Amino acid sequence: MAMATALIYDEEMTKYKLLWVDPACKIEVPERLTVSHEALVRSGLAGRCVSIPVRAATDEEVLLVHSEDYLEAVKKTPYMSLEDLMTFTQQYGDVYFHPNIYHCAKLAVGASLQLVDNVMTGRLRNGMALVRPPGHHSQSSAANGFCVFNNVAIAAQYAKKHYGVQRVLIVDWDVHHGQGVQYCFEDDPSVLYFSWHRYEHRRFWPNLRESDYDSVGRERGAGFNINVPWNKVGMDNSDFLAAFFHVLLPVAYEFCPDLVLVCAGFDSAVGDPEGNMCATPDVFAHLTHLLMNLAGGKLCAVLEGGYNLTSLAQSVCQTVQTLLGDPVPQPAELGGPCGSALESVHCVRSAHRRFWSCLRHAADPPASQLSTERRKASGKENNGEEGDDEQEEETEEGRAEQVSWPEPPRRVSPPVRTAVVLPDGVACPDGSTPFGPQRSHDPPTADTHGRCIALVEKMVKNEMNRFNVLKTLLVQISRKEPEGQKSKHRIPVCLKEGCGDTAGFMQAVLGLLLPVAYEFDPGVVLLARGPDSGVEEGTWQHLTCLLQGVALGHTLVLLQENERASISPTAASLLGNPAPSLGPLGARLPDDVEALERLRRMLQAHWKLLQTTEAAWPSFCPTGTAPHTQHDPMKSRARLVQVSIKPVSFTSGRVTAAAARVDSCVLVPRLPVHAVTVGPAP
Ligand code: Q9C
Ligand code: ZN
C-alpha cells in the first residue's frame, strides 16, 4: 500500500454554481469536476488509485490561514437570500457565493488535509484531490478568483504543525498567480512558493505589481518566493519545461523539501479560455514526473483552475497516471522556448541568484529589463490592437475554445516494468523479472552479449519513436578523462571533484543533461556507469529516475560487475520507486557552476532547451565539427548523444549489471560497454 496513489473526490463539491449573470465567473462550473472524475473512471485510472473519503475541515484548520472575521462572515452565507449573497460577493473580486459553497469550501480544505495525512504518514505515496472551490487566490480575509479558502496554503501550515515538516515546496502551475499563497508565506523561509502565470506586463488579471519576477519574498523569506511572469500568451511545452529545468528544479533540489504540494490548475493547457496557452495535456505528465522524486516522492496535487473541459479532463488523467508510476509519454515536439519566455526566465534567474547557489552564475539582469519597465509604465505598445476590453475578451475566449489538438496517445502500463539479466549467484531484485535464458538447460552466462542485444531489440520493437528511427542517448558516468572530439552530439562534462559531489552532479543533470535529453528525444537511453565512478547511490537513483522522462522510459542501465550492491537500488528506481531525498544540497563549487554555465552557453546554439536568456550568444563551433544550426533528427546523421558526466570511456571497463526500464533490466556479465552501442556511432 505504501506505493499507492490517493484519489480524493466527492460529488458534493459539484453542488454549487453561479446563480446570477456574471461573465467573469461563468466558466467556473460544476462540470469541471464531473468530467475530470468521469475521465479518470473511464480510463481505469480511478480504479487503480486508493479512494480516500473527504471530510469537512474544522474551524481551527481554516484559521491556520484565514482570519476569524472572514470565517464568521463566510459561515453566514448558507442562510443568505440571493440578494444578500450578491451583495456579499461584491466586496471581493471575480468570485461568487452560493448557499452551499461554504460547505464545499470546507470539504475542499478537508480533502487537501486528508491527502497530506495519508502521504505524510506513509500510508500512500502521493495523490490528487479533485476539489471545488479552488483555493490559491483566497487570502486571510478575502475570497477571490473563484476561491473561498486557500486549500493548499492551509495544507502547508497543517503539515508543518502536525508533522513537523521543515520545508514545503508549493508548485503553482495554474496559469494565474496564486497571490493568496504568496501573501501567506512571503516572509516564511520554510515554504518555497513557485508560480508561473500569465502576466502580460500586468495587463492580465489579477493585475498585481507583486506578481512580477522581482517579488522574491521578504525578510527571512527572501528568496523563497519565485514568480515567473509570462508576458505573452501562447507559451508551449518548451517554455514550461525551460522554466522547470532552469529555475524550479535546480532551486527545488537545493531547497530539498520534505513535502511537495502542487496547486494543480490546468488553465495553463491548450484550449483554456483563461490562459490562452499552447502546452499540450501530456506536458503535465512531465511536470509531475520531474517533481515526483523530490521529498522522497511525497507529492500532493490539489485541483485549482482549468476551464476547457476537454483539455482539463485530459490533463488530470495525465497527472494521475504519472502519479501512479506509469511511463511518461514521449515529450511532444520541443522547438525551444520563445524569446519572451526566455526573457522571463532570465529575469527570474538573475533576481534569485543571490539566494541560490545553483543560480549564482546566472547572467546579469538583462539590458531589456529597461524595456520591460518601460512597457510596464506606459502600457501603450499594444495600442491599436486592443479594442474595447469586453469585446477583446470575448473574441479571445472564442478563439481558445476552438483550438484543437490531438488527443494524447494512450499510455502504456507495461506488465513487466523491469527485467534483469544477472550474473551467477545474484538474486533477482524485488519486483523485477529475469530476462533471457531461464530454463535450467540454458547455459547460465553463455550468451550475455546476445541477451543484451535481444533486450535492446525488444525495447525498440515495443515502442518505436515517431520517426521510426532509433536514436540513442548514451550517458556514461566515469572518473576518467573524456576521449574524442567534442560536438553537439558528444558532450563531456567534467566536475572538479568528480561525481561524488552531489550538488555539482545534480546541477549538471538538471541544467544540462535533461534539457539535451528532452530536446534530442531519444528512442532509448543507455546509462552506463564506469568503474569507481564515485557517484553516490542516492544521486545515481535520481539520475536513473529523471532520465525515464524521455524515451517512454526505455532505459538500459549498465553497471560494473563488482558493484552488485547497486543492483537493487537501481532496479527500484527503474521500477518507478521514489529516489531517497538527497538532503539540502550544499554550495556548488564556484568553479563547477561557472564551468557548467560556460558549457551551457556554448551549447545553447544547438540545443535550444539549454537557453536561459533571450540574448543571442555567439555561436559555438568546436574545432573540426560543423554543427547543424537547425536540429532535425531526420537529417542529422549522428544519432548518438553522449553526455559524459566526469569523463569517460569504457573500453577497458568490464560491465556486469545492466538494467532497463520497461521490459528490461539486464545484468550482463563481462560485456565491454562499447559493444552495446546502439545505432551508428557519430
Ligand atoms: N475572463 C482560478 O483559476 N478572472 N481562478 C476571470 C474572465 C478570474 C481564476 C476573468 C479568474 C480566476 C482558480
Ligand atoms: Zn487559474
Describe the overall structure.
- By secondary structure, the protein is of the alpha/beta class.
- Helix content is 33%, strand content 12%.
- The protein has 19 helices and 17 strands.
- It has helices at 31-42, 45-48, 59-62, 68-75, 82-90, 101-120, 151-163, 179-185, 237-255, 283-291, 309-323, 339-352, 369-378, 389-402, 448-462, 502-520, 537-547, 567-574, 590-603, and strands spanning 5-8, 50-52, 126-129, 168-172, 191-198, 225-230, 259-264, 299-303, 418-421, 433-434, 472-477, 490-493, 524-529, 555-560, 640-645, 654-661, 671-672.
- The strands form two sheets. Strands 9, 10, 11, 12, 13, 14, 15, 16 and 17 form a nine-stranded mixed beta sheet that branches. Strands 2-1-3-8-7-4-5-6 form an eight-stranded parallel beta sheet, with helices on both faces.
- α10 (283-291) links the parallel β7 (259-264) and β8.
- The chain is globular and about 75 Å long.
- The two termini are 46 Å apart.
- 55% of the residues are buried.
- Residues 376-394, 442-446, 463-469, 617-640 and 645-682 have low confidence and may be disordered.
- Bound molecules: N-{4-[(3-aminopropyl)amino]butyl}acetamide and zinc ion.
- N-{4-[(3-aminopropyl)amino]butyl}acetamide (Q9C) is lined by residues 24, 94, 134, 137, 145-147, 174, 176, 205, 265, 267, 274, 304-305, 393.
Radius of gyration, rounded? Answer: 25 Å
**What's the story with the biggest beta sheet?**
9 strands, mixed
What is the mean predicted local confidence, pLDDT? 83
Q: How many helical elements?
A: 19
CA-CA gap between termini = 46 Å
- The number of distinct β-strands equals 17
Helix content: 25-40%
What portion of residues belong to β-strands?
A: 5-15%
**Low-confidence parts lasting 5 or more residues at pLDDT below 50?**
376-394, 442-446, 463-469, 617-640, 645-682
Structural class: alpha/beta
